[in-house]
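Exercise 7. Predict the joint structure of the components listed below.
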Amino acid sequence: MNYDRIIRAVLATMALVAVSGLALIAVFVFKEGLPIIFRVGGKEFFLSSDWHPSEGRFGILAMMAGSLMVTAGAMVIGVIFGLGCAIVITQFCPRGLAMVLKPAIELLAGIPSVVFGFMGVIILVPLIRGYLGGPGLSVLAASVVLGIMVLPTVTSISVDALQAVPRAYLEGSLALGATRWQTTHMVILRAAKSGILTAFILGMGRAIGETMAVIMVAGNSLALPRSLLDPVRTLTSNIALEMGYATGEHRQALFATGATLFAIIMVLNTIALMVSRRGARRYSKK
Amino acid sequence: MKTEWVFAYKRGKTCLSVFLAVIIVVLLALLEVGCKERGQQEVSVIGSTSIQPFAELLGEEFHKKHPGTNIVVQGGGSTAGLQALASGIADIGMCSRPLSSEEANVFVPIVIARDGLAIVVHPNNPIKALTLQQVHKIFSGQITNWKELGGNDQGVRLIMREEGSGTREAFVKLVMGKMRVSPKALVQESNGAVKELVKSDPAGIGYMSLGLVGGEVKALIIDGVTPVCSEVAAARYPLSRPFLLVVKTQPQPSVQEFIDFVLSPEGQRTLEMEGLVRAK
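Solution:
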């Protein structure tokens, strides 16, 4: 009994340490970052893309646009291929193949992001430069690399969601004369919707937060991107690129960049959660 | 059923013991390291990331000769290094640009080497030479096509270093003056990344430390002077910058020893072999 109590205390301490660590990081980021936003003015900080730290100009509009564009592109690629994979694995392929496919895709998650970035620079960037024009380092390159990086997350969680759909749904639908595809998109996908949305959220979190691979393939230029072939700098790459040297206001502005990213991720997650809840409720009412 | 429970319980217990043991070992190891450090002298060198690799190399060589002194080298940028020196965190600052007049009042700069700044393009680019004025116009966005310089009909792709890099600071100071760099410029975070990009992009132009150019990219002749070490040493090549170690007016003996080592023929030879130009 005594032993149990010790274990409980140890585990509680660990949980507390982990959670308070996270909370402290959040507090620190906002404490360091918010003052400069007030000093520079929210309008200047969020709505200008004039980033010249040495001249005291801090405008992050182009980077916010960059982060959102790259993440959106990555999610288009990640969801199309990830969900496609998940459907094939759970519905349309022989069990033996599925047992090879799923671990193979999950293995992708273990590859360090630098490697993805390096592959992007060596293979993808010259292809884009050669066939589509522009500098090659671009929104498109970053989206493709990130899209591949979120594949394992999106696929494996979607597979779990699809497999969790009760077998009775499948059998019922097939018994009513629906084809396999009709069953999949009209019954299984809808029943698994909230799980698939979770996959989407986690994938998005990974995409918007990824730094190393993006620095390598996105070009990091400060201009507002006008097409998919323009280079772009994301919020994360801005922090990573300049943190090493930054002091004073510049450093604070980078923390403010981090705080902005924090806020954007929270907003996106909240929206996604709300959508999934509303969807789930409507579905259950029917 | 019952046996399974007991088994799981026992396994849990072993896991926990192993876990605690690991923690204790790690703590002991940290303690051990802490004790070891105490007996030794430490010289902390902070600043420019351009000088950092050279300083690390020199630090290792120095440590071989003076095992009692550890040279601890950290990056952070030239300006950050000077701030660390002022606040007493660093014993020596590394600075890859000349000191400003206020800084020169407080600190003592010691030139340990000179480094050229090479303007590099793709090896197939027909352009061989540019004037400083042309480089200025290219990077400020006034010249946007190689055709205007007598090259191929192709847009110019600018490649910069990130804000705060010593190489960037030197470039901006020597070439751009008060003029801003075009915001369309790509930004890469190391000499290596700039080189990789220029090597693969026929329209690219960038700048990097002369010591790191190698054969895969073409360094341009600037104002009629070929970018080689001898021209930098003779102060004919227009784009060169000093590598400084910066100290306070009364350095400690161990600090002085390290600086003497860097300026000694041995230290200077090391720097020269790494592609820099001797200070003397």
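Discussion. Residues 1-8 of chain B have pLDDT under 50 and may be disordered.
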